[in-house]
Design brief:
By secondary structure, the chain is an alpha+beta fold. The chain is about 20% helix and about 30% strand.
């Protein structure tokens, strides 16, 4: 009997049963288990190494990520001064929102947020606060240690405006699931817009580089004078297609999402090369 048991165990080991799947399984490039988190961090992963999860971000950056998730109920009126209304936002509330992105171990420290930091509400990831405060900018006034909250004000009321929206032309090219993590590979071209000075008219050139280090200039072209001109759609199309046109000259961003509680995934880090 012992010989039979030993033979069966040996066969199981040789066949790989119960061992970790090192090859992983390809999943959809927009799989919901990671994609929303990936999108919320787009502007932070194109030029900086973020290999230590939330610890790779400043507290000001963490607030910038979380404020887009704030609900009107999270912003409580505090006081008025010099014709300006001030509101209180609990740092615990901010930390709870960040858990959805960085996992339960995330620690947000309101004391270390840059005072006078300004956050654009009218951005491409539109804030839930927009309708409540009818403002374009949230500004940090102070930290209230008594109740661990941030005191903020809102201003810049007006209409929406067009922003230069590209720092990279990027495209997810592979998403692989392993036992306890998802690894996402993304190809990218680094894009930079520079205004030409000492000219009578506004002129700006767009430069396409191989990476944030800008070791190789791939291409350059003149940007439209007016971002609202009829040429804008053609201009944006050039930027959107930059990776497809120059993929062999670009760089690769690797994102890692770890499995946490309740089988939910969180951002564990990103690097590029």
């Amino acid at each position: 009997m012992k010989k039979v048991i030993i033979i069966l165990i040996s066969l199981l080991l040789l066949s790989g049963c119960g061992s970790k799947n090192d090859k992983g399984t390809d999943i959809a490039l927009n799989d919901k288990r990671f994609y929303n988190i990936y999108e919320s961090l787009l502007e932070y992963t194109y030029k900086d190494i973020r290999e230590n999860g939330y610890k790779s971000f400043t507290n000001t950056e963490l607030l910038q990520i979380a404020y887009r998730m704030l609900e009107p109920k999270d912003v409580k009126f505090s006081y008025s001064k010099d014709d300006m209304d001030y509101y209180s936002i609990s740092c615990e509330t901010i930390n709870n929102y960040l858990k959805d992105i960085f996992g339960d171990d995330v620690e947000f420290n309101g004391k270390r947020v840059s005072i006078d930091a300004r956050y654009d509400i009218y951005d491409y990831l539109e804030s839930n606060l927009r309708d409540k405060v009818n403002a374009s900018v949230m500004e940090i006034d102070s930290y209230n240690e008594a109740d661990n909250s941030l005191i903020v004000s809102f201003g810049g009321r007006g209409t929406d405006f067009e922003k230069f929206p590209y720092n990279t032309s990027r495209k997810i090219i592979k998403a692989t699931m392993y036992d306890d993590e998802i690894i996402v590979k993304e190809g990218a071209i680094y894009i930079e817009e520079k205004v030409v000075e000492d000219t009578e008219d506004y002129q700006a050139y767009v430069y396409l580089y191989d990476s944030p280090e800008k070791a190789v200039l791939i291409n350059t072209f003149l940007a439209p004078y007016d971002h609202l001109s009829e040429d804008i759609s053609k201009y944006y199309k050039i930027l959107e297609d930059a990776y497809d046109n120059y993929s062999e000259e670009g760089y690769i961003i690797t994102h890692i999402f770890k499995k946490g509680k309740n089988n939910k995934y969180y951002f564990a880090g990103s690097t590029y090369k």
